[in-house]
Amino acid sequence: MNGKGKYVLVALGLILFGLMVWYFSNIVAYILIAVVLSFIGRPVVDFLNKLKIKNWRFPSALSAGLTLLLLWFVMVLFFRTFIPLIASQAKDLSNIDVNAAMQSLNEPIQNLEAVIAKYSTEGEAFHLKSVLVKSFSSFIKVSDISSIFSSLAGTLGNIFIALFSISFITFFFLKDSSLFAEGVVLLVPAKHEDGVRHVLDSIKNLLMRYFVGLFFEVILVGFLVTMGLTIVGVNFSTAVVIGLFAGMMNVIPYIGPIIGATFGIIIGLATNLHADFYTQILPLLGYMAIVFACVQVIDNILFQPLIYSNSVNAHPLEIFIVIIMAGSLAGIIGMMLAIPAYTILRVIGKEFFNRYRFVNKLTKNI
């Protein structure tokens, strides 16, 4: 077979592989989630495997099983702790009489309406208060919360299948760290086997550091936001909910902190509509903005350099460009997956395409 025929076969193979991934996307998602969980649990498995009690050592299956149980315990504890707080916060928001509470905002609203009317080119008056009442009513409406839980209840069967599948796959990835690699090696020609093994080993080490670091970043950002908001006067349960959301949104590079801060300030305003605007609400919102700004500075100086730069050995500007490109292609999901995907591509490029000067430049720090 000539060279052109080989390229055609490779192209057809890649197309077929892409179609299979798309058709079995749920299964692929289960496997990828299991890989991430195995990365997070790998240090625990390694510790148990090295632990020796007299002359007895933990079997690999027992180490994997205990680690999986630990992961489940942490997740159950997380939801058991935070779901009641979120439900309580949603209930408190739903009990707010927006029309009565908005009385404290009459004066600043009238001032804003006067400014808008002064510079508006439209003849019809703009009623800011009615817009705010409608917006806040939609934001705190309990029926929206109920619809979310109804939707989750309707998909309970699918959720159970997903959780069981992910747990089952994760157990075997924890039990045998080379299982995923062996499965990938089966799909490549024998002459590239050593190179693929080296690529997978490098990817595993880099992504393990990245996901473990990301896990701790979410916890630390959520903790700092919660403590900061509590100090400036936000109710503790409300601060916990805002801190949890801010920590989770922080996974989205660059725009995630903005989303978290916006959500927090809206919650802070919605839960204090009964207070005087100038003496209570406005100072509180200012203090909340300062808390979010300080946490973001700490995150940018201490946390993110360790996770986004050092963990994947890439320059911050390089990471920024990749994230923006991924966001333009696939939105928020693309931004979340940009760094892991770019890490994988760099490792593959270093192993198989390092003869090119451009690739060699991008991958020299790996």
From TrEMBL:
GO terms for cellular component: plasma membrane. It is found in: Cell membrane. It is a multi-pass membrane protein. InterPro entries: AI-2E-like (IPR002549). It comes from the Bacteria. This is AI-2E family transporter. The chain crosses the membrane at residues 7-24, 30-49, 61-83, 148-174, 214-245, 251-273, 285-307, 319-345. Keywords: Cell membrane, Membrane, Transmembrane, Transmembrane helix, Transport. Belongs to the autoinducer-2 exporter (AI-2E) (TC 2.A.86) family.
